[in-house]
């Protein structure tokens, strides 16, 4: 069983919104930095958005700035991704990732994360 469970993906039209959620599949302890990545066939997973262990800092890929918002519940180590004004190029499998955090630091590299979900599909039609 993957340590993280994602939900909220689906098929939408350009301009629509979706909200992805990620929860731990087992009891967790410690404070985690968390992020969302996405991957399309034949491509490496790319960083979409990340939030620090403290929850006080966020970071976004340039392609989603102003449209996506990452938020988290620190007590439960859950994280959401609100996606607005979706575009066909946002179509991908979205993965939630987590790692033990370091204060306000945000991690953008896939190799920095230890825990992953199995992914949720997002398809945006034009």
How are the secondary structure elements laid out?
Layout (H helix, E strand, L loop, with lengths): L3 E4 L2 E4 L4 E7 L7 E8 L6 E6 L6 E3 L7 E6 L4 E6 L8 E9 L14 E2 L3 E6 L1
Parallel strand pairs: 2-11
Antiparallel strand pairs: 1-3, 3-8, 4-5, 4-9, 5-6, 7-8, 9-10, 9-11
Question: In short, what is this structure?
Answer:
This protein has no helices and 11 strands. The mean pLDDT is 93.
> In angstroms, what is the radius of gyration?
13 Å
Uncertain parts:
none
The structural class is mainly beta
User: What is the makeup of the main sheet?
Assistant: 7 strands, mixed
Helix content: under 10%
Order of helices and strands: EEEEEEEEEEE
- How large is the count of helical segments? 0
3D shape: globular
Q: What is the CA-CA span between the terminal residues?
A: 35 Å
Mean pLDDT reading: 93
Strand content: over 45%
Structure description:
With 126 residues, the protein is mainly β. The chain is 0% helix and 48% strand. The chain has no helices and eleven strands. The strands form two sheets. Strands 2, 4, 5, 6, 9, 10 and 11 form a seven-stranded mixed beta sheet that branches. Strands 1-3-8-7 form a four-stranded antiparallel beta sheet, with no helix packed on it. A hairpin with a 6-residue loop joins strand 5 and strand 6. It is globular and about 40 Å long. The mean pLDDT is 93.
Throw out a few tags for this protein.
mainly beta; seven-stranded mixed beta sheet; four-stranded antiparallel beta sheet; 11 strands; globular
């Amino acid at each position: 069983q993957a340590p993280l469970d994602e939900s909220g993906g689906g098929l939408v039209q350009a301009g629509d919104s979706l909200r992805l959620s990620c929860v731990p599949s087992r009891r967790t302890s410690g404070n985690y930095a968390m992020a969302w990545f996405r991957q399309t066939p034949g491509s490496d997973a790319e960083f979409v958005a990340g939030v620090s262990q403290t929850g006080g800092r966020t970071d976004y890929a340039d392609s989603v700035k102003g449209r996506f918002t990452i938020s988290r519940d620190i007590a439960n180590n859950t994280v959401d991704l609100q996606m607005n004004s979706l575009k066909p190029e946002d179509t991908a499998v979205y993965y939630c990732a987590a790692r033990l955090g370091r204060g306000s630091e945000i991690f953008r590299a896939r190799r920095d994360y230890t825990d992953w979900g199995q992914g949720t599909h997002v398809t945006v039609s034009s």
